[in-house]
Amino acid sequence: MHLQSQDIPLVARLYKRSFQNHFLGHMGYKFLELFISEFVKSDANFGYAAKYKNEVIGFILATTSDNPFREFYRDNFMMLVYLTISRFLKDSFIRRHITKRLGHVHVALKALFSFSVKDNNSGEKREVCLSQQPRLLALAVDRSYRGLGIANELTAEFCKEMKELGFKKVGLSALPWNQRAISFYIKDGWKKEGASEASISFSRLL
Ligand SMILES: CC(C)(COP(=O)(O)OP(=O)(O)OC[C@H]1O[C@@H](n2cnc3c(N)ncnc32)[C@H](O)[C@@H]1OP(=O)(O)O)[C@@H](O)C(=O)NCCC(=O)NCCS
Fold first, then answer.
1. What is the CATH number for 55?
2. Could you tell me the pTM of the whole model?
């Protein structure tokens, strides 16, 4: 089912548990809740949750936009600056990896500037753009529920909706050391498109 507002704190908790070796998994709950809310309120971003007894046991975060976080950066700019500094001071993982993320500062500043110009004209509404390729940005299943086909059900729901919207292909990238995720994607029908030291890209025809 689509992610709903009340799922946001539950998804944030599962995100933190599932992505302990990833940058965003170290950014804290406040950041994660702001980030995940982008997949509930935006027209171009999509979130799906698998639930069992009111608990979120799996989720997908995906986008149809080539710049999915413009509004996220613009609407939360000062809060993001504060949260990033605060995590930088508290978490050595963030300190070690922050230099790889400096490109986001540029994107955030650009978003801040371009939106402040557009906002004076009209309330721009994001819409699904069929020339973009939808991308799966994050997928996780609670450790206790892995190996049960839940990830497969989530990707099926995502692919079905993208196909209904008129898209022909979806993509994603995985970290090269994430063997379980890579095995899952291959088993789930995704085809390897390219690889670098930092990531392996996959696509799937709809
Ligand atoms: C990636 C993820 C969503 C897959 O869900 P899952 O329920 O584990 O998926 P499945 O068990 O259906 O498939 C995993 C496949 O990986 C392989 N696998 C299983 N256990 C494994 C392990 N310990 N190490 C490596 N590969 C493994 C098997 O090929 C398995 O397929 P099988 O069912 O034929 O045995 C889940 O492992 C997860 O949440 N991981 C943490 C978050 C993450 O890394 N997300 C992906 C990056 S965006």
1. 3.40.630.30
2. 0.88
pLDDT at 67: 83
Q: What is the mean pLDDT of each run of 10 residues along the chain (206 residues)?
A: 94 96 92 95 92 95 89 88 93 90 76 58 53 92 96 97 95 94 97 93 97
With beta carbons less than 8 A apart as the criterion, state whether 25 and 41 touch. no
pLDDT for 125 equals: 46
pLDDT at 123: 43
Residues flanking ligand 1, CB < 6 Å: 18, 138-141, 146-147, 149-152, 174, 178-181, 183-184, 187
What is the domain extent for residue 177? 5-205
pLDDT for 127 equals 60
Ligand 1 atom at shortest distance from the alpha carbon of 154: 3
User: Of 16, 128, 27, 137, nearest to 83 (Cα)?
Assistant: 27
Which of 135, 183, 187, 199 is the best mutation target for the ligand 1 pocket, counting ligand atoms within 8 Å of the beta carbon and taking the most?
183
Burial-class residue 201 by CB neighbours within 10 Å (0-12, 13-18, 19+): middle
Tokens of 87: 């995590």
Q: 19 CA to middle of ligand 1, Å?
A: 13
DSSP state of 177: T
C-alpha of residue 48 to centroid of ligand 1, in Å: 18
